[in-house]
What does this fold into?
Amino acid sequence: MIGKLRIKNYAIIDELEIEFGKGFNVFTGETGAGKSIIIGALSLLLGEKGDPDMIRSGADEAEVEGVFEKGDETLTIKRILSRKGKSTVLINGKKSSLRELKEKGKYLFDIHGQHEHQLLLSEDTHLDFLDAYGELFPLRERVGEKVREVKNLKERIENLKEKVRLLEEKEELYRFQVDEIEKANLTPGEDEELEREKEKLENLERIREKVSLALEEIYERDGSTLEVLGRTVKELEDVLVDEELREIKNRMEEALSILEDLQSPLAGYLSSLDTDPARLDEVMERLELIERLKKKYGSTIEEILAYKEKVKNEVFNKEEIEEEIKKLEKELRDKERELEELAEELSQKRKKVKEKLEREIEEELKGLGMRAEFEIEMKNQPIDERGKDTARFLISTNPGEPLKPLRKVASGGELSRIMLAIKTILSGIDRVLGVVFDEIDAGIGGRIGEAVGRRMKRIGRERQVICITHLPQIAALGDHHFVVYKKEEKGRVVTRIKKLEGDERIREIARMLTGEKITESAIEHAKTLLRGSGI
It folds into this structure.
């Protein structure tokens, strides 16, 4: 329920605070006093879009704040509208979004006015009314969960099938690529070795020339390096007068030994340069092959080999994927069977409660002055998260007339009474904290007006009801009675509100009966209405 509502600078309201009571709250007052403005302010707290034009003249902002009580939980909601079109939402002091507020608002209040019947006119909601009446939402949620499981399985299967399809499309290509790489018989680092060999082969003559010259200079010609160094070592042996010179001579002997040892390897290296003239072409062809493979599969031999393994795994993984698909398809068949069983169970339960709800609504409408025939038309549809059924309300408001959808038959006043009948029946089940009825008594009066009031009072036993009314029969039934009036203060018209008790309430109901001139008989009639309401 809503405990308090504070309004500031909204329409002709400068500042106002209302303390609501439990049960049935009625608001009365002359036309234009501002009763519907209060409902508009409450709508802002439920997530309705704010209109900057509703900000009071002379003010930059309008504020609406409500304190809602839900069990042990207190929820404070505040809306601030600015002339710049910005809207601020605060929930328990924290900034929030209008979308979040609208979501919370669905569970706080339903607002129904003479021209606000979207819920009832939207056939999409009719199944919700039926399921709420039959307390079928837990079973419906199980259906929804199973639908989501089936959907997820189908998506997984389709994704795997697409993967298999792509693999089949590319299988021939993949096999060709694997074969091409394997035939190349690549070795990591091979390209670097080939580059070095290529450089050697391209410079073969120059290398051979330089090595031959080295052999000749060091070993072969008269006065070669080896000959001169050997002779020098011998000459030093005659003058070894100290250790320093002996050390130098020893190192020269080591150098001589090294040179002697290098002759054979150097000659052997020179012999090895007599290679097959076609070898350079072989090396070039091999490098060209590796370069082609690099352009196709990776920038290094290691990457090429890694790509080969990846592709091989993809090709041979197809069988594993196909096995997984078979397994998931079996699971899907089981889930679909379970879903069909749950949807059928839900459908059967709906059919059982359908006739009972139809008769109850007809009885309620009869009590509200409508001799109507009411039917809930159910049809099968492909299973979705709400089951396998659709539902829509059909009505005939005159005997002998065929049943037709609500939107084609019912007038505004009739829609109000139909909604009131449904709300009365669902009052112990509905999840909202309260219901607002904004002048739904238009076009009715007398006995029917009293019947409408008693239905609202009955709903008030289960949840809070706020009603704006022009009917004294309804006003007299309220657990709490507020009057809304206008007055002039400091040269401006403002809206004020007052909770009525005792004689003040009697006089207000008498005014509603006769107008501004209150007679003794009107006062007595008002007292009779209040006594009849049990107050």
Q: What stands out?
A: The radius of gyration is 48 Å.
